Amino acid sequence: MSAQLLRYALDLGYRTVLVEPDPTKLAPTEHADGTVSTVDAAGLDGNTDVVVCDHHRGELGAVLRDALAGQTRWIGLMGNPRHEGPHIKALRDLGVADDEIARVHRPIGLNIGSRTPAEIAVATLAGLIADRNTRPGGFEF
Helix or strand or coil: residue 59? Predict the structure, then answer.
């Protein structure tokens, strides 16, 4: 799913950086402006949107903690909205305050019934565009 998200985001004019904490999986991708191993190396600023695609990773808490500590506009984590996200326990275990944990959006993207990786990427980016433009998304104007 991250490949589609990176490709479409690049087409939309986003600066895209893939953060891969596992050095054995760290490889450049043609759809990102860069591939780095830490959130700090990604160069976060007040215009940065962070999307976490894999909520089953052991590094989840540390990656989100670092993203929350950096200057980020928006942070979101993919996952099933019917279950508490694993990020909550991971962040609490690292001592992150509940008000900071609440900054992590889950689920993310517009509710368009996405099933495939490409559809999920489109819904995610549409949600980011709507949020950046202070719009609710959907068909109501």
Answer: coil
| Distance of alpha carbon 92 from alpha carbon 88, whole angstroms | 6
Please state, in angstroms and rounded to a whole number, the distance separating the CA atoms of residues 16 and 65: 20
Give residue 83's pLDDT. 84
137 Cα distance to chain centroid: 18
Q: What value does the mean pLDDT take over residues 80-89?
A: 88
**HSE-CB of 60 using CA atoms within 13 angstroms:** 22
Percent of the chain with pLDDT over 70: 98
Cα–Cα dist 68/88, whole Å? 13
* Spatial distance between the Cα atoms of 34 and 27, rounded to a whole number of angstroms: 10
What is the C-alpha to C-alpha distance for residues 16 and 43, in angstroms, rounded to an integer? Answer: 11
Q: Which residue has the higher pLDDT, 104 or 141?
A: 104
Residues 98 and 72: beta-carbon distance below 8 Å? no
Angle at 60 between CA 36 and CA 28, to 5 degrees: 20
Question: pTM to 2 decimals?
Answer: 0.86
Write the CA distances from 69 to 31, 36, 51, 100, integer angstroms.
Answer: 26, 18, 15, 9
